[in-house]
Design goal:
alpha/beta, 2-enoyl-CoA Hydratase, Chain A, domain 1, six-stranded mixed sheet, 10 helices
């Protein structure tokens, strides 16, 4: 079974995380497949919209730690680094991006949601950013850009679970809709991003991004450096294992 389903429909590319039995958790191979697909999409001048969704009950339950016993500090550091680079690629894509959250949207899955320009909750969803619980600084700047520094700090430091209403009210989600309305809303978004010619649409998107990402590549480098410094502290695997054990008790 493919871990990532890809469907191109004219100017729209749909990428569906396809590990429903694992809550679409981000395995190393799924991150690799996503990274390759996003890289290819960014090189396609005809693409106007990238849609990210998840098969099954959840959008994405975060970083896959099911084989933690097989990991080392170094292998985890490499995997977290690749996730950050994926998030940066999605956030800086030269076309519109949309994430469709449902069910549990946690950790790196919530970061993937926050990296997209359009962030829709379909039905209901719960979101959380637990990475700081094992000493990881991942996606913090992007989250603060969406919801403000104070709220981002509260959610990250407090380990809050964010419901759909709070996500929409805070700006983390741009709208909530029922599943039966999804096709209509997708058609409206497709019409919006297709109204201008490709060059103008991409230039307009870049101008909007410049306002949203004033630090540009330098900011991305700073975010990557923060992630690497946090993950490179000795004992990463033990911190993750301790966090997982604590979560099982709650």
């Amino acid at each position: 079974m493919n871990e990532l389903n890809s469907k191109r429909d004219g100017v729209v590319l749909q990428l569906e995380l396809n590990r429903p039995d694992k809550g679409n958790a981000l395995s190393a191979s799924l991150v690799e497949a996503l990274s390759e697909a996003v890289s290819a999409a960014c090189a396609d001048p005809g693409l106007r919209l990238l849609v990210l969704s998840g098969a099954g009950r959840h959008f994405c339950t975060g970083f896959d730690l099911s084989d933690l016993d097989q990991e080392s500090d170094d292998s985890l550091l490499a995997r977290f680094t690749r996730v950050e680079l994926l998030l940066q690629a999605v956030h800086g894509a030269p076309f519109a991006t949309l994430a469709l959250a449902h069910g549990c949207t946690l950790g790196a899955g919530a970061d993937l949601f926050a990296a997209c320009g359009e962030r829709w909750i379909v039905g209901d969803a719960s979101l959380a950013f637990p990475g700081a619980g094992f000493g990881l600084v991942l996606g913090t700047t992007r989250l603060a850009g969406r919801v403000g520094a104070r709220r981002a700090a509260d959610w990250i430091e407090g380990g809050a679970v964010i419901d759909s209403a709070t996500a929409c009210a805070s700006g983390l989600a741009t709208q909530r809709l029922e599943a039966e309305a999804l096709d209509t809303e997708l058609a409206r978004l497709r019409a919006r991003v297709s109204r201008l010619d490709s060059a103008t649409q991409h230039a307009t998107h870049a101008a909007v991004q410049a306002a949203e990402r004033p630090r540009g590549a330098a900011g991305d480098a700073e975010d990557l450096a923060r992630l690497v410094r946090s993950a490179a502290r000795p004992g990463l695997r033990e911190r993750v294992a301790a966090y997982r054990a604590a979560q099982r008790k709650t």
